[in-house]
Design a protein that fits this description.
15% helix; 99 residues; two-stranded antiparallel ribbon; 22% strand; 2 helices; two-stranded antiparallel sheet
Length: 99
C-alpha cells in the first residue's frame, strides 16, 4: 500500500503552472482558475495585478480590460501546442492562443 501513496505523490508532482491545459478550476490548483474560453483551457489567475502573478507569469490586460496571469516565454518553443509567444502586446512576452 505504501507504494500506491508514493506513486500518487509522484503523479501529482508540483501541481499545475500558469498556462497549463485544463478543463476545470480544480485542475489548476489553489487560487487559480481555468479559462475555458481558451483552446484546451488555460490555468490562470484573474483578475491580477503586476505583483499578484506566480513566478514565470505576467499580468496582462486584454482588450476587454480583463486581466489574466499569462505564462512568460522567450520564443514559441516555450509555449504549449496551439499557443504562440506574443512579444507585441505586453512589456513581457507571454504565451497566448495562436490565431
Amino acid at each position: 500500500m505504501r507504494w500506491c501513496f508514493a506513486l500518487a505523490l509522484v503523479l501529482t508532482g508540483c501541481g499545475t503552472e500558469i498556462g497549463d491545459e485544463c478543463s476545470s478550476d480544480v485542475e489548476c490548483g489553489n487560487r487559480r482558475v481555468c479559462d475555458r474560453a481558451s483552446r484546451g483551457g488555460y490555468c490562470t489567475v484573474s483578475p491580477c495585478t503586476a505583483s499578484s502573478c506566480p513566478a514565470n507569469s505576467v499580468c496582462v490586460e486584454f482588450e476587454n480590460q480583463q486581466t489574466y496571469c499569462m505564462a512568460v516565454c522567450d520564443n514559441g518553443d516555450d509555449c504549449r501546442s496551439g499557443y504562440q509567444c506574443d512579444k507585441e502586446t505586453a512589456a513581457v512576452p507571454f504565451c497566448r492562443e495562436a490565431p
